[in-house]
Amino acid sequence: MASRKTSYDAPRTNDPARTMSDIIAVATQEFADKGLSGARIDEIAALTQTSKRMIYYYYGSKEGLYLAVLEDAYARTRSAESGLHLDDVEPVEALKKLVSFSIDYKLAHPEFVRLVMTENIHRAEYLKLSKTAVHMNTPAIDLLQRIYERGVTSGDFRSGIEAFDLHMAISALSLYNVSNRPTVEAIFKRDITDKKEVDRLRKNSIEMLLRFVRK
User: CA 131 → CA 68, 127, 200, distances in Å?
Assistant: First the structure.
C-alpha cells in the first residue's frame, strides 16, 4: 500500500529539532487514528522520511514516542489556554472565554480528544510515567482558582466551590461533542459538531457554569 503523501515529503536536512517535531506531528495523527497498539513505527518513519532506528534513538521505543506525543498534546493545549491572558479579564467574562475556548479548541483538535480517550483505555498507564504531565497541567487549575477567587471577591461568584470541580465541568462539556460524535450521530442522526449544534452547546455550557458559580 502506498504511503500517504504529506507535507513532510521535502528532502530531510540535518536538523534534529525539525526531525523530532515532524515525528511528533505525524505520530500524533497515527496514535490518534489507530491507538497505541494499531500505530506503526514503520508508517511514521516513512511519512517523515526518517528511519525506525532514528525514531528509537530519539524516543527509545514505540511507547516512549507515544508518551512524548501525549506530553506534546497537553503542552500545546495549556500553551493555547495561557495565550488567552484571562488574568487581565474580569471574572465573569474570563469564565465565559475559558468555556468557549475549551469547546472550540477540542473541536479544532479532535486528535487531542482521541489521545485522551486512548490513554484512559490504558488507565493512564503511560501518562503516570511522565515527568512533566503534572507540572504542565497544574496551571489549568491555578488559572481557574484565580478567576474564581476574583469572582468571589467582586461578589459575582458564591463561595464554597473548588476550582477542580469547575475544571471537571468544563472538560466534560467540551469533550462530549467530539468524543461521542459517532455514537450520537448513529443513534440520534444528529451531527453534534455542526456549527449550529456547537453554537448551542457553547451558549448552554456558559449559562450552566454561570448559574452554578453565581450567587
Answer: 11, 9, 38
